[in-house]
Design brief:
222 residues; alpha/beta; 7-stranded mixed β-sheet; 35% helix; 23% strand
Length: 222
């Protein structure tokens, strides 16, 4: 796999890719499983929804979302790691309406106005800001009018106010881009990109599920 952003730690391969789910459980002190289950429940997935999972990884999250979908629903995952894609296909083998493609989230995607919901889980913080905004614009293109974007990632917080027993691991495991991410006003950024109707749920003080709704476009003749 080509590393497009060498300082990023969300472009995963090798040992980390092979053991990603277990490692995520370890660094979250065993909390990630309950967090993602709660986040997906909060998403309010309807049986017929079309969902895009950006940075879908091993398919762990996708399998949880698929439990809410009927045969009329559909989930498409996006990832650039063939190792992750292979795991996704194995985990989601029993869900024929769950698919994954090798594609970059920061490049235009071959879907226009297709999806009711987009989930980006613990991925966005791992890119430079200009790339994050390119990803947000791509999300806007693939969402239906009034479709919902869900970003599960770090909350906005001051690193110096973080307890030392959390601050030290954060500094060790995270890439330089994450330190910038936590300082950003994401509601303003999303507003500037045509989103509104925000909702949020905080997990463990430092993880947030942020919901944003794509504005409806009033077209001529309507």
């Amino acid at each position: 796999m080509c590393s497009y952003y060498p300082e990023s730690k969300v472009e995963i391969e090798g040992f980390i890719a092979a053991h990603y789910d277990a490692l995520l459980n370890i660094v979250s002190f065993g909390k990630y499983s309950s967090i993602i289950k709660s986040a997906i429940e909060i998403m309010g997935i309807r049986p017929g929804d079309k969902i895009l999972d950006l940075g879908a990884g091993t398919g762990r999250n996708a399998c949880l979302m698929m439990k809410y979908l009927s045969q009329k629903g559909e989930l498409i995952g996006i990832d650039i790691s063939e190792e992750m894609i292979s795991q996704f296909r194995k985990k989601c083998a029993n869900f024929p309406n769950a698919k994954i493609i090798n594609a970059r989230a920061d490049r235009s995607l071959p879907f226009r106005g297709k999806f009711d919901k987009v989930l980006i889980s613990l991925v966005l913080h791992g890119f430079p800001q200009n790339v994050r905004e390119a990803i947000i614009k791509n999300v806007s293109e693939v969402l239906k009018d009034s479709g919902n974007l869900f970003i599960l990632d770090y909350n906005e917080f001051a690193l110096e106010e973080m307890p030392f027993y959390l601050k030290s691991p954060f500094k060790i495991i995270e890439c330089p881009y994450a330190f910038d991410f936590i300082k950003r006003d994401w509601k303003k950024i999303l507003t500037d990109n045509g989103f509104s109707g925000f909702g949020e749920h905080i997990f463990l003080s430092y993880i947030r599920l942020l919901k944003a709704t794509k504005a409806s476009i009033i077209r001529e003749g309507n």
